[in-house]
Amino acid sequence: MNEQNRMPVGYMLKRFFPYFKKYKLTLFLDLLCAALTTVCEMVFPLIARNITNTAMYNISALTVRSVMTAALFYLALRLVDTAANYFMADM
């Protein structure tokens, strides 16, 4: 495409945004759900690292309660991830 025929990005966005006015809430919720799924994917390695480091450096601190707390936290994150994926797929 010729450089002279290109429209500025700002101009194109100004023309494009009015079409989204009706769907602002849906767009916001979809982007929020996408962010939540990303956070949920990034937290599992942190949980695993925490448990591993605790087991390596202070095995007495690794109790059933601490492992179950981490597991329940991860289960809650998975439920949030599932709900967010359902919302994104259904909308």
Structure description:
The structure is a single chain. The chain has helices spanning 9-16, 24-57, 64-90. It is mainly alpha-helical. The protein has a domain at 41-91. Helix 2 packs antiparallel against helix 3 (64-90). It is elongated and about 70 Å long.
What's a quick, concise take on this entry?
Helices cover about 75% and strands about 0% of the residues. By secondary structure, it is an all-alpha fold.
How are the SSEs ordered, and which strands pair?
Layout (H helix, E strand, L loop, with lengths): L8 H8 L7 H34 L6 H27 L1
Query: Structural class of the helix and strand makeup?
Result: mainly alpha
Encode the helix/strand succession as letters.
Answer: HHH
- Sketch the major β-sheet: none
**Percent helix range:** over 70%
Keywords:
mainly alpha, elongated
